[in-house]
Amino acid sequence: MQAYDELIHWATDQGIEVHGIEAKMMPGRGLGMVASKDIEANERLIYVPTSSLRSLTTVRSKIRHALPPPAPNNKGTPVHALLAADLTLETPFAAIKYSAWHAIVPTRDEIFSSLPLAWPPSDYDKLHSLLPFQARTHLSKQKAKFEKDWELIRDVVFPALEMPPNRGTTYKQRFLYNWLLVNTRTFYHETPKTERLSKDDKMILQPVADLLNHADEGCEVSFDLACFTITADRDYKQGEEICICYGRHSNDFLMVEYGFCPEENKWDEVCIDEVVLEEMTNEQKQKLEEKGFLGGYMIDERTPGGCYRTRVALMLKCVSSAEWERLVDEGEDGGEEVKRLVDRVVVKVLKKYLKKCKGAIGELKQLGSSAEMVLKRWRQIQKAVEDSLGELELVVVDDRSD
Ligand SMILES: C[S@@+](CC[C@H](N)C(=O)[O-])C[C@H]1O[C@@H](n2cnc3c(N)ncnc32)[C@H](O)[C@@H]1O
C-alpha cells in the first residue's frame, strides 16, 4: 500500500520503529494493523520517540499565544481545540512535514459519514432524537464542547492570524473534520509540563500507532519521557489484527466518540435512565439526588436485573421513603421480599423500554442508510432488554407460583 509505505518511510526518518506489523484495509473499520509474521507476547511492536508526537508544545506559536493556555480543572483553552486549530491552520511547512500522515488518515467524507457530530444538518435533529439515551446525552455534550471550541477559534484565533472574516462555514467544516480527527486518533500522554492539567487535556497525536483499531482487550500502550511503546499483549499469528483497547466503553459511547458500533463488546451496557426516571415523582427524584442515586441506571449481561444503582433507585417504588432512606444509609437491600418487589418493577420498566426500542427501530427503518449504525444499536439494546426480561420473568413467575 503506497500511502502506508510512504508513511513508514517518513516515520523511520523520525526515529519511529515498527516491528512485525503492517497496515491493511479491514472491512468496516478502515485501516488497521495486522501481524506480518507470528508474534510472541511482550514483543515490542511500535516505538515512537516523544520528538515525533504532535502535542500542545508543537502547536503553532501564533495559535497558542492567541488563546489562554490550558489550565488545571478544564480551565483555559482545551488542548483538543488547540490541536484541531493547528491542523486546520497548518503552515505550508507543517503541511509538507506531515503530508505522509495526512495522506493516510481518513478523508473528510469518511469522517463525516461515520461520526454523529458531523451528521448533515438535515438529518441531525431527527437522528439525534432517535439515539438511545446514553448516546444522545453524550452527543449533546460533545456538540456543546465543539461549538465552544469553534467560537474560540473563529473569534480569537482568526483575528490574531489576520484572517479575513466571513469564511465561517468552510472553516467551520474544516475545523470540525480536524476536531474529529483529533478526537478519534489521540492518545493519553502526560509530561511534567502537562501533569497538572485535567485528563482531557493530556492528549497527543502520534503517527503510525494511530492506525491501531479498538478491541475489548489489546496490546499494551505505555509511555515515558522519551517515547511511546506498543507491546504485544499475547501471541499473534501472522495475518491476525493487532488492536489496542480505547477504553472499557459502551457501544453508545463508541458510536459517538469513534463512529462505530461493534458486534461484540464485553464492556457494553445499556442505560435505562429514561424509563427509570419516568417512574419517579419529582419528590422521589430529589431524594435520589440527595443520596447520590440520580441517574446512571444500567443493565448488562452480568446484571440482567439492573446494576446496583438501578436497584437502589427502584427500591424507592417498593418501600416507604423513610424506609428507603434507612436501607440506603445502612447499605441494605431490604431482604428477599423487597428484592422480589424490585424485580417486578424492573420488569415493568424494561417492558416500557422494549416498547421504546421497537418504536425507534420502526422509525429508523424509514430513514435509509444514514440510520444504519443507530438501527444496529437499537437492535442490540432490544436483545439486551429481551434477554434481561427473559431471566427476570423466570424469577418473577417462579415467585408468583410459590
Ligand atoms: C485511531 S483510528 C484507527 C485507524 C482507522 N481505522 C484508520 O483507518 O485510520 C480510530 C478509528 O478507527 C475505526 N475503528 C477503530 N476500531 C474499530 C472497530 N473495532 N470497529 C470498527 N471501526 C473501528 C473508527 O472509525 C475509529 O474512529
Could you spell the SSE succession in H and E letters? HEEEEHHHHHHHHEEEEEEHEHHEHHHH
Major sheet summary line: 4 strands, antiparallel
At the first level of CATH, the class of the largest domain is: Alpha Beta
- The gross shape turns out to be globular
Which whole number gives the mean pLDDT? 94
Number of discrete domains: 2
Q: Using the coordinates shown, work out and report the CATH topology of the largest domain.
A: set domain protein methyltransferase, domain 1
- CATH structural architecture of the largest domain: Alpha-Beta Complex
The largest sheet has its strands arranged as 1-4-9-8
The bound ligands are: S-adenosylmethionine
Q: Helicity, in percent?
A: 40-55%
CA(first)-CA(last) distance:
67 Å
* Beta-strand percentage range: 5-15%
CATH superfamily of the largest domain: set domain protein methyltransferase, domain 1
GO molecular function: protein-lysine N-methyltransferase activity
Domain SET: 14-247
Protein name: SET domain-containing protein
Organism: Apiosordaria backusii
